[in-house]
Amino acid sequence: MYEKFEKRAREILAGLSLKEKVGQLNQAVVAMEGDDIEKYKERVRRGEIGSVILCNSPTAGNDEQKAVLTDLLNEYQYCAVEESQSSIPMIYGRDVIHGHHTVYPIPLASACSFDPELVRDCYRCIAKEAATEGTHWTFSPMMDLCRDPRWGRIIEGLEEDPYLSSQMASAMVKGFQGDDLSDPYSLVACAKHYVGYGFSEGGRDYNRTEISDYTLYNYVLPPFRAAVEAGVGTVMSSFNDINGEPVTSSKKYLTAILRGQLGFEGFVVSDWYSVSQLKQQGLAENEADCTALALNAGLDMDMSDEHYAHTLEELVLSGRVSEEVLDRAVLRVLKIKLAKGLFERPYAQPHHVDRGEHIELCERLAAESMVLVKNEAGVLPLSKDQKISLGGPYIYERRCHHGSWALDGYLGASTPNFLEAVREVMGERGELFVTSEGLHDDSNYIFSLGDTVVLALGENYTDTGEARCRSNIGLYPQQLELAKRAKAQGKKTVGVVFCGRPLALENIEPYLDAILIAWHSGTRGAHAAARIIFGDYEPSGRCAVTFARKTGHIPLYYNVTATPREVDGYYGIRPSSSYVDSIGTPLYPFGYGLSYTKFKYSDILCENTEISMEALKKGEKLCFRVKVSNVGEREGVETVQLYIRDVKASMMRPLRELKAFERVIILPGEEKEIAFEIGKGSLGFYLADGSYTVEPGEFEIYIGENCLTHNKVTVKITDR
User: Fold this and answer.
1) Buried b (16+ CB within 10 A) or exposed e, 485-509
2) Interval 389-414: pLDDT, tens
3) How confident is the model at residue 34 (pLDDT cuts 50, 70, 90)?
4) Residue pLDDT, tens place only, 245-266
5) Fewer CB atoms inside 10 A, N or C side of the chain?
6) In the structure, what pLDDT confidence band is assigned to residue 3 with cuts at 50, 70 and 90?
7) What is the distance, to the nearest Å, from the Cα of residue 68 to the centroid of all Cα atoms in its chain?
């Protein structure tokens, strides 16, 4: 993909001094004020800085960050282009994770939409807003598979399923980068954190990981493979080690697998200070050791600690790092800069971006991402004519809706709080009673006034994100107490849960008649939630991650292998055998979500229940059809999901694996036929050496509403 820039990149490289080459691999933290600005400009003129990270702390997602000053960025770029000997423009990177001024749902929530096309369109809008102010490069998407929701960064990931994560990762890359990376409205995407960061032991950030090669290839790597196939320009290495080998200094992971097997062509950037952290991890004694280990492994650009800048020149002169290795890394950086069009358009030209479409898409994605997980006796949707009592800690909250990693989100009128959203959606028809903000507690009285109580519950954005792990992922006791009070009034009670992770809701669930998982859904999150509970929008989100009953049940994920004895609690096989003090089934399984209508599935129709290995190799596929009927009284959206199980294989295979899905709108009384085709790429698996294999034998094909569906047919792959 980037080969066409090879010739020009080599011509540029030939004119660089050793110091200038080193500078291209140095990403420095931006200087924003005072004397630091002039010192920074002088360094740029000397060719010491090839890239700038536009933030001032490693945990930028929860720390206050200064706004991007486009004029200052252009001043720095002028120093690079007009006043340095090399005239190579710098590339500016910023954590534009799930929005810029318009903030979209956190990535975990977006995955629950099961709508990659909408996600792609939304991320195109994100790129437009950020690029016009001078950002060239975003450190997103994050595709760390995670099975432990105690980990704060679960909000940024696409969660427990490799197939869904791959679809979303590809959509995000294509949204950021567009059809042409040189488009001034495009951002270079960055697939992170490569690799295994989401397996941090105990859900504790920056921790060690143990990942077998079999698990690596079949669960962890697929989203990165999808991002590479989508043309992602950069990859960020992860902090963690895998089985005692830090990824930062691993030639196996950074070169043999990433480039050799996945075919990645762009450049690899370290995470913040991760090169220097090789000392902490016990592999290096000093800066020079860190640099030599990282660059020789295939890590091209050093983020923020400037170890490359301090030591790489001498390492090349002494022979510890060959100039060939250095040149290879510089070429990769130059090719991305050329692909981005920085040599033709180095300066930002800010202009007004009409956010109207962006806000509209933001609300649509927020609505599609929210998951209705409980609705006893059809308490939802609410009538706008009734009396509503509104309470909970998040009725007045505004910033929380943006979630973590929303550095530049606008918090004005475009981001209403839940109270404002409910008032707007409800209008003048009914009556609204609202609990007081502050120390005065009038909840019992307010709850007594309404026909229905609506509680805005959840967790603050500061409980999520980088270095924001929780040992207990239940709702806080005060929120449980509110639900008990509402229930004690004998009122129907609705819980709208604004959160950044799949919370353990077993304790509070009995006190809530309906539960809407509204996530941290961005600029229009509160408004989307209000419109869902009053029936303006149909709930259509599906769980992209399993909701465990208790924190103590973690890890709990659907694509688990069989146990030697029949104790697979997830699938209801002797669930009491998992624990003596609790039931081992999930509270809400992967793929689960309710609608305001009901759907009925036919048996699966399969034209041919047998196919040969030879036919699969030639590209032939198995075809499956299922009819889905809307047997309710409202229009609804169903996400039809196809899972497979390889019944007998040379390696243990998951009890269910998602391999296809389709969102479909179905009118009341309407029946639609959904067709799926699956072939060689869906029926095999990776061995521990990274090779892909498809084996003959029986496969169970499940098509239904979530991973627990019983609607199945058995097919067979024959030897010939």
Assistant:
1) bbbebebbbbbbbbbbbbbbbbebb
2) 999 999 999 999 999 999 999 998 88
3) confident
4) 999 999 999 999 999 999 999 9
5) C
6) confident
7) 24
Bond into 381 cis (ω within 30): yes
> SS3 of 663, please?
strand
3-state DSSP assignment of residue 93 = strand
N- to C-terminal Cα separation, the chain: 37
CA distance 101 to 127: 11
Q: Considering the entire predicted model, what is its pTM?
A: 0.97
Structure tokens at 226: 């999808």
- Angle at which helix 116-131 crosses helix 162-177, to 10 degrees, equals 40
Q: Which residues are catalytic?
A: 271
* DSSP one-letter string for 513-533: SEEEE--S--TTHHHHHHHHH
CA 283, CA 245: separation in Å to the nearest integer? 9
List residues bridging with 92 in a β-sheet.
Answer: 52
Q: What b/e readout covers 287-300, taking b as 16+ CB neighbours within 10 angstroms?
A: bbbbbbbbbbbbbb
Q: How far is CA 251 from CA 137, 218, 593, 671, in A?
A: 25, 20, 43, 54
**Measured between alpha carbons, how far is 226 from 264 in angstroms, rounded to an integer?**
11
Give the integer Cα–Cα distance in Å for 91 and 135: 8
CB of 663 closer than 8 Å to CB of 112? no
Task: Give residue 427's identity as a one-letter amino acid code.
Answer: G
Instruction: Return the SS3 of 99.
Output: strand
**What does the DSSP 8-state code read for residue 258?**
I
Q: Where are the beta strands (DSSP E) in 574-656?
A: 599-601, 605-606, 610-612, 622-630, 636-646
| Spatial separation of the C-alpha atoms in residues 596 and 375, rounded to whole Å | 9
Both tokens of 604, joined, read: 């699966």
Q: Is 414 exposed, middle or buried (0-12, 13-18, 19+ CB in 10 A)?
A: middle
Using the predicted structure, report yes or no on whether residue 439 has a pLDDT greater than 80.
no
How far, in Å, CA of 703 to CA of 83, rounded?
A: 63
Helix axes of 35-45 and 70-82: crossing angle, nearest 10 degrees: 30
Distance of CA 696 to the CA centre of its chain: 35
Sign of the four-CA dihedral 136, 138, 139, 143: negative
Q: Tens of pLDDT along 73-82? A: 999 999 999 9
Q: Residue 691: is it exposed, middle or buried by C-beta count within 10 angstroms (0-12/13-18/19+)?
A: exposed
Q: Which helix (H) or strand (E) holds 331?
A: helix 323-340
